[in-house]
Design a protein that fits this description.
Blueprint (H helix, E strand, L loop, with lengths): L6 E12 L2 E9 L4 E3 L2 E3 L6 H13 L1 E16 L2 E15 L9 E5 L1 H7 L6 H10 L5
Parallel strand pairs: 1-6
Antiparallel strand pairs: 1-2, 1-4, 2-3, 2-7, 5-6
């Protein structure tokens, strides 16, 4: 399939330090009634990393420090292939306000985050983050 037909998106597995470990940010999207990682479509010509940071800020209100590159997710949406590039990102500040796209933000330990994610394809990204941070699962 020509590269132009691929839906390009990017996001982050956003995390913060918490007593006894870390917590991951999951967003609830009322349009789909699902829990996912902050991500979104890239603008034409947009650098994937810059797009990932823009999406995190838009969806969560959080600023972050980028960490390790995580696996890219590939799936099909409405008959078109979609590619979502991900990075690890530590929250450095910010404030969540519900908006049109995201009405809830949940900070959860990795195991709980993994369970709450709606799409099975997102769960390996939690494992990849834990491995990238050198934590025990």
């Amino acid at each position: 399939m020509p590269r132009a037909s691929v839906i390009r998106a990017a996001g982050c597995v956003l995390w913060r330090r918490a007593p006894g470990g870390i917590e991951l940010a999951l967003v609830h999207r009322p349009k789909y009634d699902d829990w996912s990682l902050p991500k979104g479509k890239l603008k034409r010509g947009e650098d994937p990393l810059l797009g990932a940071l823009r999406e995190v800020l838009e969806e969560t209100g959080m600023h972050c420090a980028v960490g390790a590159r995580l696996p890219t997710s590939h799936y099909v949406v409405d008959g078109r292939p979609k590619e979502v590039r991900y990075w690890s990102a530590e929250m450095t500040g910010g404030f969540f306000e519900p908006n049109r796209e995201v009405d809830q933000l949940a900070w959860l330990p990795p195991g709980e985050a993994r369970e709450r994610l709606t799409q099975e394809r997102d769960r390996p990204l939690v494992d990849a983050l834990v491995a990238a941070l050198g934590l025990c699962p």
